[in-house]
Design brief:
By secondary structure, the protein is of the alpha/beta class. It is 36% helix and 25% strand. The strands form three sheets. A six-stranded parallel β-sheet has the order 5-4-1-8-9-10, sandwiched between helices. It is globular.
Length: 315
């Protein structure tokens, strides 16, 4: 069964340099590789949801520039069910400069949001029928916060299941968090949401309790190689990490969120969808590029079948 996922989020043009190590301040290093491609948390997560089996409607905003032409052409060729793409005349298309370095393929990213931060009230209102028709509404924080808030309100009023990936960090109110069905912070974002340092399973459990106190019903805190903490109404479990040989960790969180949305839209329970999302992210880091590196559904099933011992466990 293919569920319907509506993704509202950013499009950025990514310029990626592969390095032996990160440069120091004032230092110039020669990259061993370079590429340009589609990115932005919204477009990345929409692509992941599509390749994980969902019917996807992507909503975003670009500039009236060469990057915007690239964005429109790319999105139209991706295979989404539908695209709603607004255009800003005053700001350029968002773009990101990305360094990928070392044996662990860690990344450093600088983002210029551009048109992503200019979504208007009238534009959000035009999206109401699309959001109402979706099983899942997936959002991030790479757009202007007032537009994100309006999209969440539209989804809540329509009875659509709303997932918020609170990245990149913007300060959000407890009232907004309480309107969302599921939040998916990483350890850094969980720290910023709660005011406590989140670095391992034990501290993630404490952070989860604080987030529940703020009105959050369901949450997943991703913890890198330690796995992820799933907490539903204070009942907690651990999502395992699937083995991988990483080449590029850019977009791993986007891979997790898009795959999670796709499997929830298909009617899978949260634990099963989260386990699939973990496997999906592990396959994604073995590919180069964010949106370009999102794996196919069959490849992820193969990864899961290769590690049948990995399962969600109660804490």
């Amino acid at each position: 069964m293919k569920g319907r996922v509506c993704v509202f989020g950013s499009f950025n043009l990514d310029i990626v340099a592969g390095m032996a190590r990160f440069p120091k301040p004032g230092e110039s290093l020669v990259a061993h590789s370079s590429m340009m491609g589609a990115g932005g948390k919204g477009a990345n997560q929409a692509t992941a949801a599509l390749r994980a089996g969902a019917r996807v409607h992507y909503i975003g905003k670009i500039g009236n520039d060469d990057y915007g032409i690239f964005a429109r052409r790319h999105l139209e060729n991706t295979g989404f069910d539908a695209i709603t793409l607004f255009t800003c005349k005053e700001k350029p298309t968002g773009n990101a400069l990305i360094f990928v370095a070392g044996d662990d393929a860690e990344n450093m990213i600088s983002v210029y949001p551009g048109a992503n931060l200019t979504v208007t009230a009238a534009e959000t209102q035009r999206c109401q029928p699309t959001i109402a028709a979706a099983d899942i509404l997936l959002l991030q924080l790479e757009n202007n916060l007032n537009a994100i808030q309006r999209m969440i309100d539209i989804g809540r009023d329509a009875g659509t299941f709303v997932i918020l990936n609170p990245a990149p960090w913007q300060k959000v109110s407890d009232a907004l968090l309480s309107k969302v069905n599921l939040i998916t912070p990483n350890c850094t974002e969980a720290s910023l949401l709660t005011g406590m340092v989140v670095s391992d399973i034990a501290s993630a459990k404490q952070a989860a309790m604080l987030l529940h106190d703020k009105g959050v019903g369901q949450l997943i805190i991703t913890l890198g190689m330690q796995g992820a903490l799933l907490s539903v109404d204070r009942v907690m479990s651990l999502i395992p990490v699937f083995p991988a040989h990483p080449k590029d960790t850019t977009g791993a969180g986007d891979a997790f969120n898009g795959a999670l949305a796709a499997r929830l839209a298909a009617g899978e329970p949260l634990e099963k969808a989260a386990l699939f999302a973990s496997a999906y992210a592990s396959v994604s880091v073995e590919n180069i590029g964010a949106a370009q590196g999102m794996p196919r559904y069959a490849d992820v099933l193969e990864r899961m079948q290769s590690h049948p011992q990995l399962a969600v466990t109660a804490l």
